[in-house]
Amino acid sequence: MRRIRLGMVGGGQDAFIGGVHRIAARIDNRFELVAGALSSSPERAQASGRALGLDPARTYDDFKAMAKREARLKDGIEAVSIVTPNHMHAPVAKEFLKRGIHVICDKPLTATLAEAKSLVKAAEKSDALFVLTHNYTGYPLMRHARQMIANGDLGTIRVVQVEYAQDWLAETPDPDNKQAAWRTDPAQSGAGGSTGDIGTHAYNLARFVTGLPLEALAADLHSFVPGRELDDNAHVMLRFEGGARGMLWCSQVATGSENRLTLRVYGDKGGIEWGQENPNEMRFTPYGEPARILTRAGASGADQGTRIPGGHPEGYLEAFATIYSDAADAIEGKGKSPALYPTVQDGLEGVAFVDACVRSSKRNAAWVTL
């Protein structure tokens, strides 16, 4: 199988999410990393390239130089992964999109709503694809849940509850913690703290599974850690088109929680409950009947996301790899219609969600629209 030539911007030494993207790109053997601008520091960029075995001639100190040269090379990159802090997503993506290089970008789409709207225009003008890595949509049972709801198995949706709880920012982090430093800095992260980092994941998953457009929200954002400029906890009430009601909670100060992403959806015919920390099982309860435990193996709509026999757990990295394989299929013209991977429009909605949460909270949790 021919592998798609992949570049990466960001994700150098000690960067968590860059390593995750590289693993995800390799799992199904669809991509080969051949170039990178891995750090804003030239020394770190070169050292990171050497550590990954990249050709020094294709290890760049600057993403603009990388985009220009790779676009001219006969064997230049066909796609680029963007794994920088949020404020760099838009300028990096635009450089590659205008040269026809496909973009696979970490979430959220951008740091600000204005940047997000500008990036959407750039993506629409380009012949290249734009894929956003809301990786939790790659879990087989989440795709199965989406199909169940589309088929009417839950009936008319009434209640949607989604939460993403962590505790890694429960205290002021060590100054050397780069992951915490940029995520709590408005200049790099944007207006949302927990809302931008994990709330967007929760919101996107609820939208992906239910298919319900949001009508309005009311948000109470708070920073519990003294001196923190961005929210580390948020409670958001949701009103969906058609009458369904919802609640979203995201927190990075929820002591004892690691990555507790949970989704519950209730209709007039039944309900489902799923948790990311045990992603291979989902509880389905038809109204008036005993609960059923659905497993990953054989889940409809999840064929591509299932790689090994039932009983062998698949998790976070495999779900991430499913997004990369979806991207590869689309790049090669083999993708399903409609595409299941998150798009630039999903990214715009995610940034608009954060913007609405901030606006609502400043108005004492008033109801606002995206």
Layout of strands and helices, then pairs:
Blueprint: E1 4-10, H1 16-27, E2 31-37, H2 42-51, H3 63-72, E3 79-83, H4 89-97, E4 102-105, H5 113-125, E5 130-132, H6 140-151, E6 157-165, H7 178-183, H8 186-189, H9 194-210, E7 214-222, E8 233-240, E9 245-251, E10 260-267, E11 270-275, E12 281-286, E13 292-295, H10 316-331, H11 344-362
Parallel strand pairs: 1-2, 1-3, 3-4, 4-5, 6-9
Antiparallel strand pairs: 6-10, 7-8, 8-9, 10-11, 11-12, 12-13
Helix pairs in contact: 1-10, 4-5, 5-11, 6-9, 9-11
Using brief descriptors, characterize the structure shown.
8-stranded mixed beta sheet, single chain, Rossmann fold, Dihydrodipicolinate Reductase, domain 2, 370 residues, 13 strands, 5-stranded parallel beta sheet, alpha/beta
Structural description of this entry:
- With 370 residues, the chain is α/β, with parallel strands linked by helices.
- It has helices at residues 16-27, 42-51, 63-72, 89-97, 113-125, 140-151, 178-183, 186-189, 194-210, 316-331, 344-362; strands at residues 4-10, 31-37, 79-83, 102-105, 130-132, 157-165, 214-222, 233-240, 245-251, 260-267, 270-275, 281-286, 292-295.
- The strands form two sheets. The chain has an eight-stranded mixed sheet.
- The N and C termini lie far apart (43 Å).
Number of helical regions: 11
Mean pLDDT reading: 95
CATH homologous superfamily annotation of the largest domain: Dihydrodipicolinate Reductase, domain 2
The CATH topology of the largest domain is Dihydrodipicolinate Reductase, domain 2
Shape: globular
Main sheet specs: 8 strands, mixed
Number of domains: 2
* Through-space gap between termini: 43 Å
